[in-house]
TrEMBL record:
Keywords annotated in UniProt: Glycosidase, Hydrolase
Classification via SUPFAM superfamilies: (Trans)glycosidases, Glycosyl hydrolase domain
Residues covered by the Glycosyl hydrolase family 13 catalytic domain: 138-496
SMART domains, sorted: Aamy (SM00642)
Gene3D superfamilies in the record: Glycosidases (3.20.20.80), Golgi alpha-mannosidase II (2.60.40.1180), Immunoglobulins (2.60.40.10), Oligo-1,6-glucosidase, Domain 2 (3.90.400.10)
Protein name as it appears in the record: Alpha-glycosidase
Family indicated by similarity: Belongs to the glycosyl hydrolase 13 family.
InterPro entries attached to this UniProt entry: GH, GH13_cat_dom, Glyco_hydro_13_lg-like_dom, Glyco_hydro_b, Ig-like_fold, Malt_amylase-like_C, O16G_dom_2
Coiled-coil residues: none
Length: 584
């Protein structure tokens, strides 16, 4: 037994409150080392040697990655407090593990064990419930649709007449979105994420000039309100992009600093290293990356903090937006985000707060800051397996297990799962324009735990390399769209909406991975039904035995809506898949 690999720590992703009465407990051990684990648990005030009152609950093997196994148990302590530890078994040894380490047998001393002092409801991580059933659609407004040519900036090119460049304009606006709302409704979209819409000096608008004004190329506030109302009438929520880490070079406060230097009343709004402040040859102030056009805001300063919080509240109060996506969220101080959450939730309790963080994000996901982050570890694993063939089936399962066990389950249910965005190459391009691989990516994304997001145009086969190539104009002529791909994505979304197990209510489990034939099998299980999905990520026909007992079951092929024989053997075409439903 390799005790050095065994790990547990209360709180975070290893011991947390799932809801107001339920605790989830995880234990990590060396892969293949332990054969069974029991959770020893009891109330701390009933845990005495004289009046012994504890219990042993078997823990299930939740999943494995390349190095570790993860064991899981759910428990509802009667008095919302818990002392607990682990009775662990290898093939040759038995031990008891608690906060003080390892012993040979239960010491019957509550002080030896881990402690969850009290399940306070205010500490429970709680994302908006509506997010769990939402399918998002990311729109880069400048490239979605030109609904009012009178708003076109000077030099605007005819729609789709050229490949995009960093400084080109095609005239996308709010009216273009409104006029094409039926496209989203038909697809099954229930949430729109808009990249920045505020007044800025570029086509991408991440260099904000005025946080309280809409960029005139998109329309005015009346048109924006009409857009929100149109979306809400069609069952679609709207999330805006907030750039609070940095402003634009032409933001009035920064312009004042450049003009008045040390005499500027805004000099403490930014991270200035010396005077005179200058942008060239290198900026002598902190910026996003090293971009002189994006000076970093000092969010610790009371005036900056209040200004940005007023911005966040204004767009909720005046326009009833449903969420904020927070750009470069990891570079802003935690205390600002805590105050941000309190401010916006006080106005609209179910507003969605999404942080752009590309790495381990547990410090931001403890219920006091964000509801979710953009799940790039999911993105990377999915693209490396399905699109790039860089990892095998086992490695894919290991990476996804790491994703799922890195966070509490209630955090995973709100995770923002994307395959592409305005910052990444188009998925069809990454797949070398192999549409069959794109179908598998959409199948996995839309059946995984979390809230999926489709980047505009991916559903009709847009291509494009990295920025600016991934920001092409949306194609609206149907004879130029991939309508077969659109129909497949639409059908997958409908399965997510119709079957609770297909979406967020389904417990995700890898059943089998096969490196030789390059397939994966996983299940999604809810209270009422189990869905078993097999994906053939190879160019060969393969026969697969599904590791599931169909005895006395009536399996249904959800894709073809046909009854199947009670057999576990299926045949899959190259890059084919199977979606089987059984009632529990």
């Amino acid at each position: 037994m390799l005790k050095e690999a065994i790990y547990h720590r209360p709180k975070n992703n290893f011991a947390y409150a799932y809801d107001n009465e339920t605790l989830h407990i995880r234990l990590r051990s060396k892969k293949g080392d332990l054969v069974k684990v029991f959770l020893i648990h009891g109330d701390p005030y009933q845990w005495t040697e004289a009046g012994w009152s504890n219990a042993h609950k078997p823990m299930s093997l939740e999943g494995s990655d390349d190095l570790f196994d993860y064991w899981f148990a759910e428990i509802k302590p009667e008095f919302r407090r818990l002392r607990y530890g682990f009775e662990i078994y290898s093939d040759t040894e038995t031990a008891v593990y608690g906060e003080r380490g390892f012993v040979d047998k239960d010491p019957r001393d509550s002080g030896f064990y881990f402690c969850f002092p009290f399940l306070n409801s205010v500490d429970v991580f709680e994302a908006p419930n509506w997010v769990k059933s939402t399918v998002w659609y990311q729109i880069f407004p400048e490239r979605f649709a030109n609904g009012n040519p009178l708003l076109n900036p000077q030099g605007t090119l005819p729609w789709g007449s050229a490949d995009p460049e960093p400084d080109t304009y095609f005239g996308g606006d709010f009216e273009g979105i409104i006029k094409n709302i039926n496209h989203l409704v038909k697809l099954g979209i229930t949430g729109i994420y808009l990249t920045p819409i505020f007044k800025a000096n570029t086509n991408h608008k991440y260099d904000t000039i005025d946080y309280m004004e809409i960029d005139p190329q998109f329309g005015d506030k009346e048109t924006f309100k009409h857009l929100i109302e149109t979306c809400h009438k069609n069952g679609i929520r709207v999330m805006l992009d907030a750039v609070f880490n940095h402003s634009g070079f032409y933001f009035e406060a920064f312009k004042d600093v450049l003009e008045k230097q040390e005499k500027s009343k805004f000099k403490e709004w930014f991270h200035l290293r010396e005077f005179p402040v200058k942008a060239f040859p290198e900026p002598n102030y902190d910026t996003f990356a090293f971009t002189h056009m994006m000076p970093k805001l000092n969010t610790e300063h009371p005036e900056v903090k209040q200004y940005l919080l007023n911005v966040a509240k204004y767009w909720i109060e005046e326009f009833d937006i449903d969420g904020w996506r927070l750009d470069v969220a990891n570079e802003v101080d935690h205390e600002f985000w805590r105050e941000f959450r309190r401010a916006v939730k006080a106005i609209k309790s179910d507003v969605y707060i999404l942080g752009e963080i590309w790495h381990d994000s547990m410090p931001w996901l403890q219920g006091d800051q964000f509801d979710a982050v953009m799940n790039y570890p999911f993105t990377n694993a999915s693209l490396e397996y399905f699109a790039k063939d860089k990892i095998n089936a086992d490695e894919f399962a290991h990476q996804l297990t790491k994703v799922l066990t890195s966070y509490p389950k209630n955090v995973n249910e709100a995770a923002f799962n994307l395959l592409g965005s305005h910052d990444t190459p188009r998925i069809l391009t990454i797949c070398n324009e192999d549409k069959e691989k794109v179908k598998l990516l959409f199948l996995f994304q839309l059946s995984f735990i979390g809230t999926p997001c489709i980047y505009y145009g991916d559903e009709i086969g847009l291509t494009g390399e990295n920025d600016p190539g991934c920001r092409k104009c949306m194609i609206w002529k149907e004879d130029k769209q991939d309508r077969e791909l659109f129909t497949i994505v639409k059908k997958l979304i409908s399965l997510r909406n119709k079957h609770s197990a297909f979406g967020n209510d389904g417990e995700f489990t890898f059943l089998e991975t096969n490196n030789e034939k390059n397939y994966v099998i996983y299940s999604k299980q809810s209270v009422d039904e189990t869905i078993i999905i097999t994906i053939n990520n190879s160019s060969d026909h393969i026969d697969v035995n599904i590791p599931y007992d169909f005895t006395n079951k009536k399996p249904v092929d959800l894709w073809d809506n046909a009854m199947l024989k009670e057999t576990s053997k299926i045949e899959l075409t190259p890059y084919g898949f199977s979606i089987i439903l059984v009632k529990n």
